Amino acid sequence: MNRRAFSKTLLSLSALPLTSATRTKFSIRLLRHATLVVNIRNTSFLVDPMLSPKDAMDPVGNAESKSRIPMVDLPVSNDELSKILGDVDAILVTHTHRDHWDDVAQKMINKAKPVFCQPADLEKIKGQGFTDVHAIEDTASFKGITIHRTGGQHGTGEIGQRMGTVSGFVLEAAGESLYIAGDTIWCAEVEEALNKFKPQTTVVNAGGAQFLTGDPITMSAADVLKVSTFKTRVVAVHMDTVNHCKVTREVLRNYLQEKDKTGLVFIPADGSKV
Prior knowledge:
This protein is an alpha/beta fold. The protein is globular and about 45 Å long. The model is unreliable at 1-23 (pLDDT under 50). It starts with a helix and ends in an 8-residue tail after the last strand. It has a seven-stranded mixed beta sheet. A six-stranded mixed beta sheet has the order 1-2-3-4-5-6. Helix content is 25%, strand content 22%.
């Protein structure tokens, strides 16, 4: 096999699920963008649901691209989506920006489903009619799973302040942990969470989301690579769906290839499991 063919093989492997020899007790399915279905110990969480059909929402303003969002359809039928919503045990919302908690999700999800969120969003979600909402200040428990809230920075400077409070969550059970970093750039809070919880798997919101001015507000390719230097399996999501995300899957794969770090980050396709 020549060098070019070998590189293509490595690129394809970075998008594939793990083998049974390396698979953890967590199952993670990416639906689209940051919307995940996480299963652990027969308990499932729907994370950051954005369920609108393709092109249903206005684009994010002050961005180079003017494409309507979501830019792609959900990878499931309406019947399968309804089944997913019926089967999940709880909803986990890192923050309530519309690409993580949209109007369609609020209408479709059973209002009696348990919802876990950051304290800043408690009253907002209750005001939307949900009756079993739990704000996690530090730690909570659900069906034998411990949920820790972590901090983050949704950008820098004035833009970061305007983006508001965001959180990540670490799910711990049976001696394993999954860190869902949420909408954050690489920052001290992310490094602290990685050092403190030592997660076997970390889901990062990549995409390098950016406005016409200012720095990225979600992880750039370089940020994702920093996370991969820790002893954690990195799963990169949050790409190819919202118009201000400038780092696509292709861009991230190419960057990792240039740095000879292709095997450190998994980049799932919409609908796939890792």
